[in-house]
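Worked example

This section walks through a single chain of length 561. The input is the sequence exactly as stored; nothing has been trimmed or padded.
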Amino acid sequence: MLIRRNRPSYNGNSNLKQIGFAFDFEPWHIEEIAHCIDDPIYFIESYCKIVSLDRGLVPFKLYECQKEKVNVILNNRKVILMEGRQQGKTITSAACILWYTLFQDNKTVAILANKAAAAREVMSRYQAMYENLPLWLQQGVKEWNKGSIELENGSKVFTAATATSGIRGKSVNWLYIDEAAIIPNNIAEEFFTATYPTIMAGETTKVLMSSTPLGYNHFWKFWNDAEQGLNDFVRLFIPYTSIPGRDERWANEQKGVLGEVKFTQEVLCNFLGSSYTLLDADTLGRMSPKKPIYTSGNLDVYAEPVRQEVDAAGKVITPAGNYCVVVDTSRGVGGDYSAFVVIDITSAPYTVVAKYRDNKIAPMLYPSIIHTVARNYNNAYVLVEINDNGQQIADILYHEMEYENLLWCNRDGTKGQVVSGGFAGRTVQPGVRTDKKVKRIGCSQLKTLVEGQRLLVWDRDIISEFSTFVEVKDSYAADEGYHDDLVMPLVLFGWLTTNPYFRDMTNLNIRENMFENQIRQIEDELTPFGFIDDGREAEKPEQFMEAGDLWTVQKSSTNWL
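Given that input, the structure is written out below as tokens.
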């Protein structure tokens, strides 16, 4: 027989047990509690209640896919969950958190979302299930409000918006991020950089990210890295067909309501770019990132430079690869990135073989990194965007480092001659200034190259930027909250390939198998350029060292440090 010794309610709420309220448990109570501890699914289905739109308050009977979800969430430290709208990912996650805090002492769970109100919505699901538990199964309540709760066993749950200050200074055992893909990329990047390493410092701490996909953003990065084994997250994807009653007829109804694009993203859970992206959705869907063969700090390398090989008679067995480095520059104060890409232009299709990106590198140090990488890639051609402080970068490369393969452009709009031999006349300048005409030509040609698979991109950061490189007025730029510092060097590379001198650089005719009329129209508008060549044969370096030992190059092979 159950004996109540005092009034059980917390702050007048008869559905909550106050601290110190005691029961005389009968044996079956103890058995039930032990059963709930050992079997979370039994606990959820036997004692948790949810609100149904059609039937009101009902027991939470899990679908088979939801049972799998519970097991994966509770039996793994890091879980990334992807499923469509209205498939119960939030309510199931709340039930798992309820079990975790109810039957384990001194655990703290942080529920985060894009906005604090969204996080509190998850908390309300948790609280509704808690209030409908029998009192003998509850812990006493020490604190109970919309944003946080604390139980008598020392376990806590609190909510916050995803920001670096959201959980700063708090010890968290389980971090749950609801609808993670909705968080703006810049906020997510700051949060994961500042907060995530602290959360995962413990040996038993847990992280759960759940979301419907929304473009190639941070959520896509975590998902893709988990697929390739680059992080410790366990992936779980639950298709809409796993939910009873969601058949082809239901899918067709949803497609009619949502439209093709939203249906593909929110029901089929395909990663798609933002609306009006430079690249079409099919192209973005085909782009698959690869793991770099070498990473050091902010440099990712996907292919080593191809060195010239000769036989004993001096006959060339393997010709040296031909490369181009295109450079974008920022102020190095933590906002936009200084970035460059290295492109193999030996033969078509061209391939991005390396990329560098850093938003804190000082402009005075940036040229040394460019110089090191360019020299390593067989004295690659270097094209520098000279808008803003990019002129400083080009000047240092030319005047101080005397880099011989720096590309020069005419300042005026006329078709001039290629400049060589170290001459810098009044009508030329090292680098290119990106104006509307250059950007328009570059965007048009880049789209043609990538969609026609004449330029191959394996880098996940570049692919992510492509998915948010959208139409803005009469041009293209990064969507709000995102960056385009890696896409813009490729835009300039697109412009570069339309220049007649590019044919001389590569001994290739990019016009073959492409749209002759489009290229001819572009050539009518392009600004010609050349490069500086001091006439010396390019040295084959034995060793290149950059600040932080960027890499070491030997005669026979490259040892990436």
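What to look for: The chain has two domains: 9-238, 294-456+487-559.
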